[in-house]
Amino acid sequence: MNFEGPTFTSIDNPAAYAASIYTRILSYNYIYFLNFLLLLWPQWLCFDWSMGCIPLIESVYDTRLLFVLIFWIITSFSVYILIKNVIENEVLDAKIMAVSLIVLPFLPASNLFLRVGFVIAERNLLLPSAGFCLLVAIGLKKIENAGISNKSNTVLLFYIVCAIFIVRSVQRNSNWLLEDKLFSSALDVCPLNAKVHYNIAKIAGDKNNRSLALAEYRKAIELNPNYEQAMNNLANLLREDKQFEEAEILLRRALAVRPNFAAAWMNLGIVLTNLNKTREAEFCYKTAIMYRNKYPDCYYNLGNLYLDQKRNEEALKAWEMAVTYRPTHVAAWSNTLVLMDSMRQYEQVLELGKIALSHNPKSPALHFSIANTLGKIQQFAKAESYFLEAINLNSQNALYHSNLGVLYHRWGKTDKAREMYKKALQIDPNMKTTELNLRKLLIAQEQ
């Protein structure tokens, strides 16, 4: 913390960063009108108003200025009447308090004194709404005291409006209960907001709705060609679909926009690895680590790259860094144990395995790796307990049952071996090695 203020960009608040002062002034005034409109009739609500949600007013011929003009005429006339009454009566009444509650809390968000990081923030209307409610109450009281003949109709209309507002509040609250509902509701208000499409895509991706996710990420990039987060996420989806060339293009575009985007550097490294551009991939991983030193996932992927190149010691060091920064990184622990096992470093496997399990006691993969090593050094009883724990944590993994079957086979417990082989084949009938082991076992038993 260097006691520095937050950093905002034109994406957060386009009007504040417009090159022309006239554009800024006209756009600000339109935003003031929209805030008043939301206060008066909160129908068009959106979780985010940035990224082109409200296009800038760049011409005096923009028809939206008509609403701005009407807004200021009504406001100016109301202020004039208010000041006139204060001067004539020489007293500050409730109307002054109501107007103060509307105006003063809104001033910090008005961009008049400093740039803010939003276009419209509905939370800034909470206090002004108190002043607005006070004005409504004053108006109703005035109608009551005026002896107007149809005042009952006016009061009835007031209650109808209150009922509508209550229904709208309940409806809006229901939108906030579910992310996908909240983001989808924003499409009706801000279809030009790239962030809205980005969030819809993200939720769709999490729900494995890939077609919607791809379409919405592309729409977000279309609306904001410099949206590096959308490019990165779209590239990840394309990579999973093995569309590596297009993924590479998107990631390079994202890095052109934000050169210090560590996640994009790592993802580009993964894509380049799949394209067999290993030297470039290594550079990307190291660049990602340069921008984000404590980056366990990147160290993990760098270790995988070294493993493919038979650079075993470097792979182990990379995975060591991964688990140092994130002791719960099961994949890095598992790869370390498997590689050390293949290098016949059995004692180190068992020592590291205990450390790994202390951080990840519910990881079936770690129990499985330790069990395999114990089996190789003929500690069958201990190996059995680790295999059984792995199966207990993940009973539908055919390989766990198969390897336990091999252990029993070597241990001479042929009945249990046969049971495990059959269980493995029941889960995955395509395990040829397991099928062969079972056949050998049955032949040996017949003899």
Automatic annotation (TrEMBL):
Pfam families: TMTC_DUF1736, TPR_1, TPR_17, TPR_8. Residues 3-74 form the DUF1736 domain. GO terms for cellular component: endoplasmic reticulum; membrane. It is found in: Endoplasmic reticulum; Membrane. InterPro entries: O-mannosyl-transferase_TMTC, TMTC_DUF1736, TPR-like_helical_dom_sf, TPR_rpt. One of its GO terms (biological process) is endoplasmic reticulum unfolded protein response. It is an enzyme of class 2 (transferase). It comes from the Eukaryota. GO terms for molecular function: dolichyl-phosphate-mannose-protein mannosyltransferase activity. The chain crosses the membrane at residues 25-45, 65-83, 95-113. Its EC number is 2.4.1.109. The keyword Glycoprotein does not apply. PROSITE patterns: TPR, TPR_REGION. Pathway: Protein modification; protein glycosylation. This is dolichyl-phosphate-mannose--protein mannosyltransferase. The lineage of its organism: Eukaryota, Metazoa, Ecdysozoa, Arthropoda, Hexapoda.
